[in-house]
């Protein structure tokens, strides 16, 4: 008996919107593995149409399937819409139309989901359609399904990791070869990792959208991109990287989503994206190139780590096809995948009140009492110092201070006050720290 003998359902007709870096790979795999996918879905999965912006630029695709009218393709006789165009408008309307008409949607569009997932889920609920989006966060890595399903019975406390391949590619190159920022970004774009507008990557918008999606799923709370504190890597300098290296650390752009308990015991959610200094011994320090890695901490499960290719055509297509098989199978058997889970609706904690730790590197006058004066400024802001390292130069000294956890606003105010001190020649580098004992 062959696998094919399990194919008994009606053909599932698929509209593919967008056939660029990811869509091309989805179309290829859908065609090359048609028999296996049919066996797994329980029905043939057929590509019914492909919408692109410029059909004449795609001689490689089956011409009879091509259109530049995505809206008409969505309205046509298709069961599933796979959206790989990106951005919010006009895609949002097309997907809402599809879902309201009972057509399941598979998308990799984190920008859209981070703003409009509530509206999309509502449209899906109105018709009983599925909304799947595994590829929207961390490329090939199965991460959203574990959060939505496998860990649905646990209580997640933290999700932290590298979720943007482009910036990780750039930071890894700056750290290992000293390569320049611009040339590395060009290379990331050439390899298909970067967004259509790469400032979405380098300024942290892409990672912030992903953090919003992760926090929403992990904490059963609606978190949008505007709730996420965002800093990109454009201000990370060669001297930051060198300062980190000299201390046995490296710099990564992390998305950090936490369940934070206040002094009165009330819970809130913190979601932030910013560069972080981590020890080279930390598992995230060894995640290089466009790879992603995410730690999940949950009460019963403990720590889990997810690792793999976070960007690129084929890896992302793998996640898209996994979703496509799932929604096709749901149609064949008459079931539905998970809906939105936002019952907790925890408040989002402002960044200033979020506990963080700072690494501060200063160039100071080398004379008696300077260290005490600097320490006094930390104390005045109720920031406790965890470690101090001083290295003398000629008539100045390099002072590196790592703090304990303190509200981010207190740390920021401390650095500002230190920058104004007469004995401080320069604040050389300021960066948040993760992965060390607090
Ligand atoms: P590309 O820019 O490579 O491809 C976009 C596609 O959309 C192109 O085929 C383009 O047509 C088509 N398109 C654009 N506007 C329209 C329109 N108005 N009507 C019809 N088609 C249109 O994007 P990617 O493949 O890189 O990304 C697609 C999505 O996947 C995005 O949401 C992205 O964030 C997400 N993603 C991307 C990853 C990656 O590594 N690249 C990883 C994870 C998610 P034409 O070819 O004619 O220009
Ligand atoms: N531009 C994104 C990245 C693609 O670099 O991670 C994957 O979502």
Automatic annotation (TrEMBL):
SUPFAM superfamilies tied to this protein: ACT-like (SSF55021), Glyceraldehyde-3-phosphate dehydrogenase-like, C-terminal domain (SSF55347), NAD(P)-binding Rossmann-fold domains (SSF51735)
EC number from the UniProt entry: 1.1.1.3
Name of the protein: Homoserine dehydrogenase
Cofactor(s) needed for function: a metal cation
Broad class of enzyme this protein falls into: oxidoreductase
Pathway participation: Amino-acid biosynthesis; L-methionine biosynthesis via de novo pathway; L-homoserine from L-aspartate: step 3/3; Amino-acid biosynthesis; L-threonine biosynthesis; L-threonine from L-aspartate: step 3/5
Listed Pfam families: ACT, Homoserine_dh, NAD_binding_3
Species annotation: Amycolatopsis deserti
Residue intervals of the ACT domain: 359-432
Keyword terms: Amino-acid biosynthesis, Methionine biosynthesis, NADP, Oxidoreductase, Sodium, Threonine biosynthesis
CDD domains in the cross-refs: ACT_HSDH-Hom (cd04881)
Role played: Catalyzes the conversion of L-aspartate-beta-semialdehyde (L-Asa) to L-homoserine (L-Hse), the third step in the biosynthesis of threonine and methionine from aspartate.
Substrates-to-products reaction catalysed: L-homoserine + NAD(+) = L-aspartate 4-semialdehyde + NADH + H(+); L-homoserine + NADP(+) = L-aspartate 4-semialdehyde + NADPH + H(+)
